[in-house]
Amino acid sequence: MVDKNEQEIQLLEEELMIKAITEDNMEELRNQLLELHPYDQAKFFSKLSKVERTQIYHYFSPEEMALIFENIEIDETEYEEFLSEMHPSFVATMLSSMYADDAVDLLNELDKEQVASYLTIMEDGAAREIKDLLHYEEYTAGSIMTTEYIAIKEYQTVRSAMQILKAEAPRAESIYYVYVIDEDKRLAGVISLRDLIVTEDDTFISEIMYDRVMSVSVSEDQEEVARKMKDYNFLALPVVDFQNHLLGIITVDDIIDVMAEEASDDYSKLAGVSDMDGIDKGPLAAAKKRLPWLVILLFLGMLTASIIGRFEATLDQVAILAVFIPLIAGMAGNTGTQALAVAVRGIATGDVDKESRAKLILREAGTGVITGTSCGFLVIMVVYVWKGDIYLGILVGISILITLIVATLAGALVPLLMHKLNIDPAVASGPFITTINDLISILIYFGLATAFMHYLVQ
């Protein structure tokens, strides 16, 4: 968390840079902005107006702007707006100067015609590299990997490997691991930078490389890649094709972005929002993202209301039953959401696999029985003391018992079923599972009330 003094310093720096832009003082602006960390440069740039950004394009080179766009965090719709403010050749040079994976991430936010236009006027080598990465399916290892890595041959010496490292390091995204390939460019091993530094110059690479190297397939899901990198504490992972040819690497900074993206995506779905929106979005944009789920939930709610209507005769005879509808439905929704959160988290972290699904279901069933029995017994006593009707208390208590068991199982089973069908389990969102459990709980409650009506009507 940024302390108050640091915030004041940042605000003062921003004010001075804005003043430099206003006064058209290029030298002062460059001195101040280039002293900042690239992330802070990008943060400042994203706050500027269109007129102020236009000044920046005149003051900074495409290579300097590349560093800003590698670190910028803006809405996907703003990329097109920002790039349209620059001359196409300026954009093309900037993209060529960016790491290939970052350039691909940016281009994925544009329409195909714009991408083709920029690639046409880019330098051939950079354009070819970016085109190769654009072909990979989104959210796979291929879509987030970079081709700026260092590879050496196993028959080389440490001396020659260090010469290659020094020559290629400026363009490589990560040099902490140096990958070893054979004559057919297949991944043969890996060496850490530390091992290269401390080993004698005349030692052959094959003698010191680690040949049991962990890699990921180019088509592997980015979430699985993130899990592997977290489990093994790697700074980078090599990406290979089905014949084990080295295609690129995925660095830890890319994985941090993936984890943030996946967490935001899962949270959005759990909240019943198609895509989490920032506070800077207008009400119309926010409503467009939320309406689809709300419309679905509206019709499910109407179905629940129609079910209550079918038990109108039961309510006419025992009107007091209506008092406990919110209690039954609320308890079902709450316990279902709890079970849902546990199941989705277990699937996301890899804790829940084929072997442990039955264990999870049995645990949640047991949890439902224990919580249902406890809450049901408590409700029986409260209703009896409150209304003086033991039969009504037993009805509500048994309804809660059965409802909590069913709702807990539904909260666990629905995401497991979706995961088995290769559907994102987070789609079983909190609002969705809550509405479904409302429907189930009402059926259970009024079904029992109708069946044992003669005990309630005296």
Descriptive overview:
The chain has 458 residues and is mostly helical. It has 3 domains: 132 residues, MgtE N-terminal domain-like (MgtE N-terminal fold, Alpha Horseshoe); 102 residues, CBS-domain (Roll), CATH 3.10.580.10; 174 residues, Tetracycline Repressor, domain 2. It is 67% helix and 6% strand. The chain is built from 23 helices and 6 strands. It has a 3-stranded mixed sheet. Strands 4-5-6 form a 3-stranded mixed sheet. Helix 15 links the parallel strand 4 and strand 5. Helix 1 packs antiparallel against helix 2, helix 17 runs parallel beside helix 22 and helix 19 crosses helix 22. The chain is elongated and about 90 Å long.
Notable features of this structure?
MgtE N-terminal fold, 67% helix, CBS-domain, three-stranded mixed sheet, 3 domains, Tetracycline Repressor, domain 2, 458 residues, CBS_dom, CBS domain, magnesium ion transmembrane transporter activity, 23 helices, mainly alpha, cell membrane
Topology:
Layout: H1 4-22, H2 26-33, H3 38-47, H4 50-59, H5 62-71, H6 76-84, H7 88-97, H8 100-107, H9 112-121, H10 124-134, H11 141-144, E1 151-153, H12 158-168, E2 177-181, E3 187-192, H13 193-198, H14 205-208, E4 216-217, H15 222-232, E5 236-240, E6 246-251, H16 252-270, H17 283-310, H18 312-317, H19 325-349, H20 357-387, H21 390-420, H22 430-451, H23 453-456
Parallel strand pairs: 1-2, 4-5
Antiparallel strand pairs: 2-3, 5-6
